[in-house]
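> tool_call: predict_assembly(chains=two)
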Amino acid sequence: MGRIVLEQVTKSFGEVTVIPPLDLTIEDGEFTVFVGPSGCGKSTLLRLIAGLEDVSSGRIAIDGTEATALSPSKRRLAMVFQSYALYPHMTVRKNIAFPLRMAGMDKAEQERRVTQAASVLNLTDYLERRPGQLSGGQRQRVAIGRAIVREPSAFLFDEPLSNLDAALRVGMRLEISELHKRLATTMIYVTHDQVEAMTMADKIVVLRAGHIEQVGSPLDLYHNPRNVFVAGFIGSPTMNLITGPEAAKHNARTIGVRPEHITVSATEGPWSGTVAVSEHLGSDTFFHVHGTGLADSITVRAGGEVGFRHGDRIHLTPRADVIHRFDDKGLRIA
Amino acid sequence: MARAVTPRRKAVNTALAWAVGLLIFFPILWTILTSFKTEATAIADPPVWLFFDWTLENYAVVQERSDYSRFLWNSIIIAGGSTLLGLIIAIPAAWSMAFVPSRFTKDILLWMLSTKMLPAVGVLYPIYLIFIQFGLLDTRIGLTVVIMFINLPIIVWMLYTYFKEIPGEILEAARMDGATLREEILYVLTPMAIPGIASTVLLNVILAWNEAFWTLNLTAAKAAPLTAFIASYSSPEGLFYAKLSAASTMAIAPILILGWFSQKQLVRGLTFGAVK
């Protein structure tokens, strides 16, 4: 069981309020991702749940038990840190066994669980090594191993993949997702990378300056962003946000059109401009179009074979049914 | 660009380094040499360097006249005890300063260090009175406690510097893994800081071993360590340079040997904070 409830939680460091009153419920077994730009308070929120920081006010309940004043060691949560935070003086075996040793579990059971975790994470051959002798990916696996052995009520991940190179990151992302499917334990995952958020989450919590901007499933956020901030943050490449007369035509202050919802043509379309940069990914091509009079640059996603080049004049047609409209306050117009 | 060093330059530098080293070591070397001379040779003018009749007579006399092992034992207890006691107090203190600093941590550290700037004789009188009051004069426990306090600022400072280099996330990981504060310090922080703690221990053992002001003023016979042993041979009644040298050599030999075998740790200890 790992249902986590935050009620009117706040956090201030001296005069600075990092988290204004915030309510949030994370259901048992859910993979929740906290996402937002750096400094939005997502890591602080995670540390409040972990108990590594004390809340300034409000309450936190884990599994229906009051946990606000509990020390981190009593909350039955496991955490994976960005820096891995392995114990450098212990072997991999001792690192993974450490939480079990602290819990006073008998040696045979410790050994059984460590062996099992190691085989799940492909670490069997490395058990006698020290963290300094492992690669980044292996260290991250040890950190995960240390978290899973004691069967916590929830896992907390604090930007666990940001120290890995791009290829490894994609691999570990899949491994963590698979782990979640297999264990079906609550996971809270903090990242600034919206691709990680979209691909892994059951539920995404978008944060800005300590405020929750929107909570929803990845596709819910993609299709129905509640405001301009979420619209601009979720989706890759980012949504084109257009103000001015073009927006006024749709009775809105701002309209948003995703790059994948614009078609390109050499000859016809309501908008036109010149290609400043074209990025060929093979499967897709991204055009950055200047001089449209709508915004500084309009990003368009087209098929891999579409062959416009720098300086070409092209025409754009937005899909009328997926234009997002926002009012003066930046809120979505239904 | 790396600095180019010619072989000639290297040779000159090496010779210079040896010269400086020898200059610093000379008093100790001279003491050791003198300890093997007769009293007459010891005061010969011009001084005799290496070619004299080497004798162990002084050592025999010194050992016969005073019980070296008792002084040695006192030194070991006072130096070891004060360092151990200091660590027990300093590890938690340095932990809290390094990992849960408050607004005043820097000030407290500076204030602690400032006590080292006070001339020791300034507090001799009050401490002497306290010792009389509590019957601590000429006791090993009294001296151990005083020397521990004298060196405590240095122990705390050194440990603080080492602890600062340990990432806080590792301690947080230990907390998440269910470690209590005691377990966190015992199983995670201390083993990680072993090199730093070793340097601190070494430096403090040496400082306590060589401490003379308090040992001479607060002991008489029972608790007197090796510094008092040396002092007892610098008598005003006659010149016994050879015997004084023998006593000095016996007193510094243990710490010299310890220092020799732990040079690496010691260098790190003495340059703490200088290199990350």
